Amino acid sequence: MKPDAIIRGLLQLSTCDVSDALDRLKIRGAPLGILPLWEGCGRIAGPALTMKLVPGTSPSPVEGTLETIAAAQPGDILAIDHGGRLDANSWGGISAYCARRRDIAGVVIDGVSRDIEEMKAIGFPAYARGIIQQSVRGRCAFAGRGIEIRLAGIAVHPGDYLLADDNGLVVVPRQQVSEALRIAKECSEAERRVREEIDAGADPIEAHRRARYE
């Protein structure tokens, strides 16, 4: 499938549907605890542009982040591995502003972010573990971009597909995205049939059994 078709397909589904598909494929792809940072944040789907932050002070995390943004393609999602740290910022308003100008779709962070009101004002979707007020400066270091990272223990490779919505985040390996999409659509359709049968007066248990197993 072409990337644009993959992104359109993902945006028609929920992370719950895709997570169910990944379960059936026996793929670990559901990082826990990475959620939208405000109501109405906006669902996003796209290929991962990865980067990593680590303890230390050098190389500069600010310069490293801006260099990563400069390397992005329109529609990329910036995926930041900060090891789940809650005591050091990972992303802020200037980075979000630059990312919006590069047509980056959004950011997902295994860590925390600040300047939420600035991201809301420009409509830049951000998903993370929480919100912080402190600067990133002097609290971490840049460890590279375009590398394998982990988000809440889930491996993410450059170009893997990400989908984030109100339920959280899923990671779909790029080699299996077509199959995952097919199964996720089947899961979504099964649930639609269950609702329709219940609306028509069917017993919920029987409707569930027919939709899921026949």
CA distance, first residue to last residue: 28 Å
Order of helices and strands: HHEEHEHEEHEEEEEEEHH
What is the fold named in CATH at topology level? Glucose Oxidase, domain 1
| Estimated radius of gyration | 18 Å
CATH architecture: 3-Layer(bba) Sandwich
Q: Assess the beta-strand content as a share of residues.
A: 15-25%
The tally of helices reads 7
Unreliable parts = none
The number of strands is 12
Helical content class: 25-40%
- What about the largest sheet? 8 strands, mixed
Going by CATH, the homologous superfamily would be Ribonuclease E inhibitor RraA/RraA-like
Explain what this protein looks like in three dimensions.
The protein has helices spanning 3-11, 15-24, 61-70, 93-101, 116-122, 177-199, 204-213, and strands at 35-36, 44-54, 77-81, 106-110, 112-113, 126-128, 130-131, 141-145, 149-151, 154-156, 161-165, 168-172. The chain is of the alpha/beta class and 214 residues long. The strands form 3 sheets. Strands 1, 2, 3, 4, 6, 8, 11 and 12 form an 8-stranded mixed beta sheet that branches. The chain has a two-stranded parallel sheet with strand order 5-7. A hairpin with a 2-residue loop joins β9 and β10 (154-156). The longest helix is centred in the last third of the chain and has 23 residues, at 177-199. It starts with a helix and ends with a helix.
In short:
The protein has a single domain (3-174), classed as Glucose Oxidase, domain 1 (3-Layer(bba) Sandwich), CATH 3.50.30. The protein has seven helices and twelve strands. It has helices at 3-11, 15-24, 61-70, 93-101, 116-122, 177-199, 204-213, and strands at 35-36, 44-54, 77-81, 106-110, 112-113, 126-128, 130-131, 141-145, 149-151, 154-156, 161-165, 168-172.
